[in-house]
Amino acid sequence: MPSQTAPGVFTQALPSYLDPNHLGPWGIYLQQVDRVAPYLGKLGRWVDTLKRPKRTLIVDVPIHLDNGTVAHFEGYRVQHNTSRGPGKGGVRFHQDVTLSEVMALSAWMSIKNAAVNVPYGGAKGGIRVDPKLLSRGELERVTRRYTSEIGIIIGPSKDIPAPDVNTNEQVMAWMMDTYSMNEGATATGVVTGKPVDLGGSLGRREATGRGVFTVGVEAARRIGLDVSRSRVAVQGFGNVGGVAGKLFAEAGARVVAVQDHGGTIYNEAGLHVPALLDHVGRHGSVAGFEGGGQVIPNEDFWGIPCDILIPAALEGQITDKNAGRIQARMVIEGANGPTTPQADDILHDRGVLVLPDVLANAGGVTVSYFEWVQDFSSFFWTEDEINARLVKIMKDAFSAVWQVSEDHKVSLRTATFIIACQRILHARDLRGLYP
Ligand code: NAD
To answer: Which are the contacts of 163, defined by CB distance < 8 A and separation ≥ 6?
Structure first.
């Protein structure tokens, strides 16, 4: 109900997901934009563009379960901004997915894509479902129905989904096939993160972790931290955390702790990363790993002595409750939105360098961009070419962010937002408003 805020003035309360005081993921994103507003100059007149998603679609996803009953799941696709190009961002299958979360994730994709200067806007999707409770057939039916429902707004030149938490190459293959069946023609460019045999790119699976590693090495050099002698703790040992952990271990670092949904293991001397990856591949989690290391309580993970901490699971993990205990010199955000704004301030005050998600995990979308380009031209690059181009883009983006951070004496997160928001709003300004 609209409430009376002054004589004769009735104002409709903002829905909670648009309210900057509501600290869900979307509220956190809004606070981050507010911190950047003073640096936008004349482009500041467009800043509200960033505070509203361009397009939000909520869909019902009904499927037949194997037991013959019908189940309904809620699905979302949000296109936050398309000023610089088509929407781009992953699809998450998780029981806790909310609209606020998908909106924030789509906005962070706009920022991320602009930060590494790939010609995309930002989008994200998700289904509120626990895929671990579904059979393979049920998972395929959920994926196909969801794809069909969002088919009205996705497409190779409109919005290109990709994998995120609990989605993978197989899910992308089903999405590509469903979209193609509806279109009547094979459209490999509608999703990225596909199997290589279906137009996927070499190096895509490792790209996000490789990007995390690349910016981590660059930042370590600047703060005088020797990676080959460093201790690394990783939360989330999937696509992002697993690869980042492997690359740090290969560079000589000791991966001393790993936490995932199954628990936390610790080994001061360094965990055997290849054996742990093999265990996770076979059992789905670090739980039960017998290759050296002790199980510790999940809460103890945050206080572990280490030099580099990599949150690579879900958002909202580093909060005002645990930020004061973190001993690392550097946090590299592999996950999206793992640090709350309060925790960000605490880490900043304690001299812990935070490499923000919108820069640190941009390697995935960068190689997704390569995949999309390769699909359009039907000409495929070698893995060495892909990795070399990825590393160059990540290093260049990192250098630019570091420079802005020094120039304005702001955090790397605010510096990344400054660069990205300026690019997005400059595009907005050039395009003007229609009509
Ligand atoms: P994934 O499904 O491969 O792995 C997720 C990991 O998080 C698993 O190890 C899981 O056990 C762990 N996890 C889940 N719940 C947890 C909990 N409550 N506590 C501790 N660990 C938990 O997913 P991913 O693709 O590696 O994505 C991880 C994060 O990285 C997400 O925030 C995602 O948005 C972000 N990200 C992914 C990519 C990509 O290319 N995959 C790109 C950019 C950002």
So the answer is: 90, 91, 169, 171, 172, 193, 239
